[in-house]
Design a protein that fits this description.
alpha+beta
């Protein structure tokens, strides 16, 4: 998700790497360098064409290196998380089949979702599950993992994204929304 990358049913929570100070500083530096390049292009404009000076080339190289560094940090983090999940040696791992394409249409969340690199996470998890002989199951896209109570199995009709704590109307249990969904996914019966 956006708040955390992954929540495991045993209570383990893997934080969002994009919220760490290292990545935030690198993104701020990247933004600063991109502004500098933009200003240099505008000042070296001749009519309708842009001239590429040696300083612009230097700045663009720095920008490329920063993009690569941020991508490598995210890839390394995804590798660490997937390895940690697989090393617990479960019999099967169940993950949600999210509608990423639909989520990317939300202009407020699209950048955060793209930076999370969820596709890369699932690819790494898939090949590591095959390597360790663990069954990987993708839950049905419309399975109500967040709306279902992990205690009694009651399904809520509506659940807003802003409600971070799941409160059951039937049994009265209160649990973190993501942990509740993780427990429901661990009990998922594939058909």
């Amino acid at each position: 998700g956006i708040k955390d990358l992954a929540v495991v049913s045993n209570g383990l929570v893997f934080k969002n790497i994009n919220k760490t100070t290292t990545v935030k500083k690198l993104k701020a530096k990247l933004k600063r360098l991109q502004k500098q390049v933009s200003r240099k292009y505008e000042s070296n404009k001749e009519g309708s064409r842009y001239l590429k000076t040696a300083n612009i080339v230097k700045l663009e190289k720095q920008i490329r290196l920063l993009h690569r560094r941020i991508a490598n940090i995210r890839l390394n983090y995804n590798h660490k998380i997937t390895t940690e999940i697989v090393k617990t040696k479960p019999s099967q791992i169940v993950i949600e089949d999210l509608n990423i394409k639909g989520m990317m249409k939300n202009r407020y969340l699209s950048k955060a979702i793209a930076e999370q690199s969820l596709y890369q996470f699932t690819q790494l998890l898939t090949y590591k599950c095959e390597l360790y002989g663990i069954k990987l199951v993708k839950a049905d896209r419309f399975f109500p993992s967040s709306k279902t109570c992990s205690e009694c199995g009651c399904v809520k009709s509506t659940l807003k994204l802003s409600e971070r704590v799941y409160k059951c109307d039937e049994c009265g249990s209160e649990i973190d929304r993501d942990l509740n969904a993780a427990i429901n996914l661990s009990n998922y019966k594939c058909s």
